[in-house]
């Protein structure tokens, strides 16, 4: 049963660690069966996952959440339900066929063909894509394209629901993804939040046509305080726009802009830093010392940007606490680097001091436990090939407030 907050809403997130009540996941499906050694780099996977096993691992992840009384919503199901609405269908079909590679003939053909599908088939096609040899479109473009070319690209990274939307208090930010392989994902989250009855009337604080911001970069350190990584995905202009938007709606008083290295290993802030308690963070030791933050605030009119400060100092100040504890995993640099690559730093808190982590990051997990954090281990040998851990694979929709 859905827990409803006192104000009657079944959504809202104002911290990283408040008891998790509702989360959106995406059970990996046919979109992963599109990965080949020829396209996996472009599609941001480091290997070719065994899909059946990835699904089993994902089911176990969902079960671990349900065992802790978390309601699990699935993106694919929400999309199917949203696509019951003719306006949702029209929007989704237009978005998926906008690509200039198609040309008019193929576009018209695809629009008509998609229009014939029932909501479940349409959702499936929007996620798994369409290959040239799967349709009998006819015409010049079809003839010139290779059989295996995609007319609508598959979206294997839907698995990482963290990135394509993020709740900021009672508003949802539909994000703007930077990598071409992922941009279309937010057309789908936009459809869900606009047309699914569960989210009727929800306020949207960001949209997918604005400057790039990815959910993996956005951490709700505590009520009113966001940390936003700026690097490979979220751009400087993205964090500026997000700050303007959240301040205008009074959803935060401080946004900490946190520069992170522009490289794949540290693509999002949550690959190097996640919260495990109201006042404790797990940080990748090789980067912890250098991490700086620029505190952005507003006087109601303009943005004020403070000088860079050590991340933990700026964060504690913004939260109004003495110190934000860094859980020191004390790992040697090589072990730390290996475990960070395997998403050891990408934990998902289900409550203060309880987090879900991949079992393979043995050393990091042991250090967390030594620091008094309960670690719920899940296997991720196949899931991990997309380079994302429990936090990346989850979009919290409702968290209870943390006790103050
Ligand atoms: N929040 C995260 N760290 N997400 C990880 C996303 C991984 C995905 N393959 C990508 O490259 O975009």
From TrEMBL:
Pathway given in the UniProt record: Amino-acid degradation; L-arginine degradation via ADI pathway; carbamoyl phosphate from L-arginine: step 1/2
Enzyme Commission numbers on file: 3.5.3.6
Chief localisation class: cytoplasm
Cell compartments where the protein resides: Cytoplasm
Cited Pfam families: ADI (PF02274)
Enzyme class: hydrolase
Keywords, sorted A to Z: Arginine metabolism, Cytoplasm, Hydrolase
Keyword Membrane annotated: no
Domain of life assignment: Bacteria
Molecular function terms from GO: arginine deiminase activity
GO biological process: L-arginine deiminase pathway
Catalytic center residues: 392
Presence of keyword Cytoplasm: yes
InterPro entries noted in UniProt: Arg_deiminase (IPR003876)
Cellular component terms (Gene Ontology): cytoplasm
Family: Belongs to the arginine deiminase family.
Name of the molecule in the record: Arginine deiminase
Source organism of the structure: Kribbella solani
